[in-house]
């Protein structure tokens, strides 16, 4: 199917309209689709921004927003938050009040490098009181956590399909207020990630550049499944699976690095890596059981590993993975882990 075929145009319209509706933005927000990743979607937002930005930093992906803003010359101020503690909202409001030139505030709703979930509704109320525009990275939040575009005062939201939307990577999505999109004409610093131009073409069911047709069609099916399941029940399912995984890991002898309940998300659980376990060898042993694991060197060096209960999985899938992890860690000869 060609990306300019009328059949594909219908897919584009259906995907973007359904996502806006499912996230509480019907009539107020539009969904803009790019070939790219969630980072590309955030770049589309930031490269169109004119004003002064404050970023709530509490992990790698919020720091990345700052790097994007600096690349495009956006005046930026970082407001550090504790990575594993609830944010001080009174202190945040004071910081905003101390910066009268501020126009935008950006945050990562769910930070996958820690599993911390920020109180989006409360922060949205602060932003609304001070007349700011709120930019939210919802990459690992949408579908797995409660989020409502209008209630939470979200002006721009970035996401991609391969997390809790349960689809494939390859497209980046921006959901933004219609009046703000309309004001962005001629203001983009990027040629490709021109948010206004892409939005205008999508209003006609078109895209100016090639997008991955197969990935977009997969997203169409994933959005339909989310609509059938219901957004609230999807969030409840993620909470249930995460709770089951945490219990199963504890019963298997693994120790959790706990987050306080107010910021504990439904997707990421941080565990202590058992002593004398070499990650690469553990990876190879699990691969023999058909289980693939991945991590980055910084996480392993800190003695931690993450469990992401993400995607269309069941309690039985969790039990199998935890059983394989337990066997590979403790129930095989010690020399196999050396």
Account of the protein in words:
The longest helix is centred in the C-terminal third of the chain and has 21 residues, at 231-251. Helix 9 (231-251) packs parallel to helix 12 (315-330). Strand 5 and strand 6 form a beta hairpin. The strands form three sheets. The protein has a seven-stranded mixed β-sheet with strand order 1-9-8-7-4-2-3, with helices on both faces. It has a two-stranded antiparallel sheet with strand order 5-6. The protein folds into two domains: 6-229, Type I PLP-dependent aspartate aminotransferase-like (Major domain) (Aspartate Aminotransferase, domain 2, 3-Layer(aba) Sandwich), CATH 3.40.640.10; 231-337, Alpha-Beta Complex (Aspartate Aminotransferase, domain 1). It contains twelve helices and eleven strands. By secondary structure, it is an alpha/beta fold.
Summarize this, please?
The protein has helices at 6-22, 38-46, 60-71, 89-97, 120-129, 178-183, 195-203, 213-229, 231-251, 279-288, 297-301, 315-330; strands at residues 29-35, 53-57, 76-80, 104-108, 110-111, 116-117, 133-137, 156-159, 171-177, 268-272, 304-308.
Walk me through the topology.
Layout: H1 6-22, E1 29-35, H2 38-46, E2 53-57, H3 60-71, E3 76-80, H4 89-97, E4 104-108, E5 110-111, E6 116-117, H5 120-129, E7 133-137, E8 156-159, E9 171-177, H6 178-183, H7 195-203, H8 213-229, H9 231-251, E10 268-272, H10 279-288, H11 297-301, E11 304-308, H12 315-330
Parallel strand pairs: 2-3, 2-4, 4-7, 7-8
Antiparallel strand pairs: 1-9, 5-6, 8-9, 10-11
Helix pairs in contact: 1-8, 2-3, 9-12
